[in-house]
Write a structure and sequence with these properties.
Organism: Lichenicola cladoniae
GO cellular component, one term: cytosol
Largest sheet: 6 strands, parallel
Pfam family, one: Glyco_transf_9
Distance between the termini: 43 Å
Shape: globular
Number of helices: 9
Protein name: Glycosyltransferase family 9 protein
CATH topology of the largest domain: Rossmann fold
Helix content: 25-40%
Strand content: 15-25%
Structural class: alpha/beta
CATH class of the largest domain: Alpha Beta
Oligomer: single chain
CATH architecture of the largest domain: 3-Layer(aba) Sandwich
GO biological process, one term: lipopolysaccharide core region biosynthetic process
Amino acid sequence: MPDPQVTIACGPVAAGLFERMPGRTRTIIVEKRRYDLHWLSLWRACIGTRWDLAVDLRGSAVTLLLRTRGRTIMRGGRRAGHRIRHLGGALGLTPAPVPVVWTSAADDAKAASLLPSGRTLIALGPTANWAGKVWPAERFAELFAAIRQALPDALPVVLAGPGPAEHAMAQGLLDRLDEAVDLRGRLSLAEVAACLKRCQLYVGNDSGLMHLSAATGIPTLGLFGPSKASEYAPVGRQAAFVAAPGPEGDAPIAGLAVEDAVVAARALLGLA
């Protein structure tokens, strides 16, 4: 399908990922409602169109009730294996395509105005959607100090999502860094992606920012503790992860040693 017209249905948090998507004609924002009534609203928004292909990645019944020449429904629920493999498999794509993210010229210009050229930019993502996945701020600071020893021109760029919780979660790291560029909650997802594309490395907890970084293609290091890297490790042209010792998905993130992260970061930077 070389020139598709694509309609995206997604939650409000993810909507920004598709703002610059080629071929996107519409985004339907799905707000969760009691008694699963959001699915009825989605069906009403889609039933008036005769679709060529309907792809359902949530395992719902909505696409079964649409007029479409073809449909793909990915089974819901947790199962072994990486999520990207499940997504590709639903469409019969093996191996699964590497994720991508799109930016505009305006996004790239905004990033250039915020981040200096001529410096080694190290993006740090010290937040996550729950505290158990958050590597201690002092470990991030020690990691950056080790990088700066090898690359004296290194400049930290701290990223976090919007809202006071994310803002506060990143403050501990900012308090430990000098000269850091603070980009917490200031940018759209496309602008964050544009900023990441200017960086030479991203290091962060298992989070949406980690996956966004990997999708830009820059060297990306994910830090894992009580979540499964076998399912959620970053996927990209230059992506890697390190995990705390212990049972996968049940290891305290505090057990992840700075030295292990430094070794992996240096390898991604070509310093190993």
